[in-house]
Every structure is written in C-alpha cells, then in structure tokens.
Amino acid sequence: MKSMLFSRFFILLPWILIVIIMLDVDTRRPAPPLTPRPYFSPYAGGRGGARIPLRRSRPDGRPGRGLEKLNESRSQAQPEPQLPTIYAITPTYSRPVQKAELTRLANTFRQVAQLHWIVVEDAAARSELVSRFLARAGLPSTHLHVPTPRRYKRPGLPRATEQRNAGLAWLRQRHQHLLLHQRAQPGVLFFADDDNTYSLELFQEMRTTRKVSVWPVGLVGGRRYERPLVKNGRVVGWYTGWRADRPFAIDMAGFAVSLQVILSNPKAVFKRRGSQPGMQESDFLKQITTVEELEPKANNCTKVLVWHTRTEKVNLANEPKYHLDTVKIEV
Length: 331
Ligand SMILES: *[C@@H]1O[C@H](CO)[C@@H](O)[C@H](O)[C@H]1NC(C)=O
Known about the structure:
Enzyme class: transferase
Site (Interaction with galactose moiety of substrate glycoprotein): 226, 318
Number of helices: 9
Main location: Golgi
Number of strands: 12
Membrane topology: Single-pass type II membrane protein
Strand order of the largest sheet: 3-2-1-4-10-6-11
Oligomer: single chain
Active site: 281
Shape: extended
Structural class: alpha/beta
Bound molecules: 2-acetamido-2-deoxy-beta-D-glucopyranose
C-alpha cells in the first residue's frame, strides 16, 4: 500500500513541477513597455523639458521616482489619450497654510484624468517646500516661479498677475511648435487659485470647453454664490453682489478657456496697467471673447461646483521665539 502511494507520487511530481514552472513564467512575463505613456504624453515629463527659463527640471529631465511610479499605475488604469488635457494654473506664495492648501488641491487634481498642474510661485526662486511637494504629489506638474515686483505688493492691487502670466507664457511656448506643425493638441486652461475648493464634476464640465466656458462660483462677491444668467442657453447677464457693471462679472474660478483660444490670442495676458481691483477677469476675457460667445456649463449655470472657501488666517500667537523644538519640521 505504502509503496503504491509512493510510486503514484513520483509519477505526479514531474507534472506538478511543470505546472508550477509554467504558472511562474506566465506571471513573470515582462509588462508591455510603458512608453509612450498615454496618460503623460504628449506633454510628457511634466517637470521636464527645460526650454523656458522660468522652469527648472531635474538634472536628468525626468520626474521624481515616486511621481513616475504613481503615473505608471494610473496610465494603465485609465488610458484616455483622446481627452483634452486640463491645464490648471495655480499661483501660490509662501505662508503658514501654503502646504495645506496645495495638499487639498493635489488630492482633488490627482483624481482628474489628463490634468496638468502648473504651479507658479511668487518668489525669486523655486522653494524647496513646493519642489518637494510636487515631486511627491503624484500628478503631472510644472513648477514655475516669478516674483511680484515690490511696487505691486500693496493692498488694493490685484494679486498673482505676474504668476498667471508666467503660466500663460509657459503654455504658449510649450504648444507653439505643435501649432506650427498643425498638430495642435486639444486642451483647456483654467485658473485654479489655491484658496478654493473644487468638485470633481467641475472638471467634467470644463473639459468640453470649445472657446470660453463659464459657471457659478460659491461663497464669493459677498453672496452665497455668483453666476452668469442664462437664457435660451446663452449668457445674458450676471447675478452678482459686487460691481455689476463689470463686463464679465465673474470670479477667476468661474471660467475656462480652450488652449486653441489661448494660442490664437498670443497677446492676451493679465494687465497691471489700467486694471482696477476686481477687473482682472474682465480685462482678460475682453481680449479673447464676448459675453454672447460664452458657453454656460453646470446645467445652464444653476449648479455650484467650486467654492471660494479661503482658509482662515492661522493663529500663531504662541509660536516660541526661543526654546524652539529640537527637530526642524516642515509644515
Ligand atoms: C440649457 O438651456 C437650453 C435652452 O433652454 C436647453 O436647450 C439645454 O438643454 C439646457 N442645458 C442643460 C444642460 O440643461
């Protein structure tokens, strides 16, 4: 009896081994090459490509390791190469809540397919905090910087003008050669300030922007919301609590522009000269569109998908001047 069991075992053993080896070989089959990565291309290497002086890439021109890993896994999960890329320009500056604000934005943007984040620091150089943050943020990004001239750093003057323009310049330079070769890529630009909260639905809405699209913004203008008034699918006016005489009575977070429009209006920028407080949006939009042309989104502008939340000014009254903590911690 025992010897029969043994002989059976030895007859089966080679077959079992063969099956195990075959399974092993199958799982070790090399994954298909990831280049070109549909998620990343054609604007691949978000932080790479050092043609514009405002931007500094890693020495080897490749994104950080962690970043690359995350993007690889995503490119397999949702390869949507035909989607227009959403370019989000976020001006930012050093302050106690900066990293918290950027973290909130990254957590949102990371869930949006084909989004390229353009972060522009108001600084003479790129800060380590933001560089480190972006390297680990897990989404395609470009890190620029431009300092606001001192004379413009006064209350009552518009903010982030130079930073938004740096983002525009980068975008134009990046795509100019594609346009020349009739290989323009579809894209949508919007200005994503770091003190807002964005619903994921907003990105679905703006993705289909043909020229310039608009939608309501919550908690802005001294009201629960502001919105474009829509009649028969066309914008006919503005529901706003503040300076209703503005040609485009809309917040920076309330519109998106197609890349095509940005490229075919190369001179359209945010202006310092002659710009009154609160007129940044109007001054910019005037250069590229008309009210009649605007495309209402968010259910004919009846849904709030973005909020000007702002973060409360933090209380640092008890920060010690002496006897600091023994370790240096980035906040
Ligand atoms: C917006 O309004 C127009 C005209 O009334 C209508 O045809 C269209 O279906 C509406 N769009 C949405 C998303 O409700």
